[in-house]
Amino acid sequence: MPLHPVLHDVTERIRARSRRTREAYLAGIEAMRAAGPTRHRLSCANLAHGFAASESDKPRLRGDATPNLGIVTAYNDMLSAHQPFEDYPARIRAVARALGATAQVAGGVPAMCDGVTQGRAGMDLSLFSRDVIAQSTAIALSHDMFDAALCLGVCDKIVPGMLIGSLAFGHLPVVFAPAGPMTPGLSNKEKAAVRERFAAGLATREELLEAEAASYHSPGTCTFYGTANSNQVLLEAMGLQLPGTSFVNPGTPLRDALTDAATARALAITALGDDYRPIGRLVDERAIVNAIVALASTGGSTNHTIHWVAVARAAGIVLTWDDIDAIAQGVPLLARVYPNGAADVNRFAAAGGIGFVFRELLDAGWLHGDIATIDAGGMRSYSREPRLPDGRLQWVDGPASSGDEDVVRPAARPFDANSGLRLLDGKLGRAMIKLSAVLPEHRRIEAPAVVVDNPQALNRLHAANALPRDFVAVVRFQGPRANGMPEMHSLMPLLGMMQNQGRHVALVTDGRLSGASGKIAAAIHVTPEAAAGGPLARLREGDLIRIDGEAGVLEVLVDAAEFAARRPDADSTPPAQDLGRNLFAFNRAMASPADQGALSISCGPLLPERHGERDLDTEYALGGGRDAAAAPHDEKDA
Predict the structure, then answer these.
(1) pLDDT, tens digit (0-9, with 9 covering 90-100), for 371-393
(2) Domain co-membership, 362 together with 317
(3) For the whole model, what pTM was predicted?
(4) 271 phi and psi, to 5 degrees?
């Protein structure tokens, strides 16, 4: 099938825009590759340090060049999605030895859980944990001991961080190996209903805790289609993990077989063999576009409108929100998985899942089918599914038709002609909105603003019965430079309950919402943020706000001259003193805007400055925006 014209045009725009930065990136990884096999460049003392504790693997590590696999793990046993990784290194080492190779744990990365920190001070660290993970991945791979890497990560910031860090070592092949989702528990719809009842005072805390525990009940990823599970779909769309591996449950024979196969594949694609597939070459403009198509067509997490801008830059590619919007307005919506439907990811997988969706997209010209992937079969192999008949792993063709058209549909009969992910623009700035879970009658709202500087203030207004019937909640000073851009998901039960009562409500924020963003019209990631003097800092209580998700409008209906003359407010939130927030003052001060990836680290090739000033190409390659080196925005960060 010919490539869809929208996909072709967006890809070419990205390629032209990224020419200088991409060329610089590829030149850098070629220089690293040309230096030859890694550990055999080391001095004797260096190499001896590298294999001192390797016991039976010492002969291979000190002898002729055989592949050595670096394991980068996000294991911890507080986070259900990463608890299964505890046993992976021993398994991976055993597979490598059986194949005449070696494997070593190169390093660990932090893995915090947004589900634990929602509404808490720890959420202020969440977004920047991605950049710490990127740096931790780079440190793990910095020892020149490895010929390929295997990344063990699943959740929200972990996968984007590992990708950014791995791309800094783009000459190495990198394979991602997930752990899979937990089995179904209490349905997401039932859980959401209890949350809304609790917000209305109609359920006890014990009832709420029982519902939550029945939903999040075992090792594995949470079963809703949030950021963690969206990560997995995007990795497959880019060809960076084996086909069909995303939604196989932990602790099953098939899961173990797929981990073994990921190990074998990583060892097979090193520069020591004849099928070299470095990650820096695989992640090109087409792979990034495929990821955005997969995100939009499945109704995935809004967080990736930030993360994949950052991932692209790590590969020297300049992706913008306008690119994402153009793709999202064209690609059809083929999946309804909670919060965009009733099904969890287990049911999604059973109904056809990624294999079915990708085949439909490929056949409709909505994916680049010609990209190189870690799998020898290329992108078409990602329409296949793994099976384990008689204990032997093999891939079979995915279903020819949907197993449940309430969950997945063919491109000829989509849920919607476009994905519902939209870019908003207007006098309040630029923002993203996800409409796939919002009913048409709630996609446009014009109502007075209730302006608060933190989500807790809105809850207090509700408790005092001080909220108007219809309103737009404006939660500002929540951007990356203000406090690390926390998620506002803790407000969703309250706003959802109000909408159920027939009230017209919406959210506008320079913070994030959540991968589980749902039925409320929410203009999120507003940029410029309030802390940088953006329009949200000029809003006043009662200002009339218009959000039109389908038309892409975010406006304040105030005379333009009057609005411009207003003095921006300062953040009224008391400074946080706990949970390590002070350690991230530098990250906040250096963070780029949300539409540039909210990066607090340099990312991608550093190009020479022209005429003493940074040009556009250089800005996009760096972590910071044009004001990134400015002084901290307030005394709290000084």
Answers:
(1) 999 999 999 999 999 999 988 99
(2) yes
(3) 0.92
(4) -70, -10
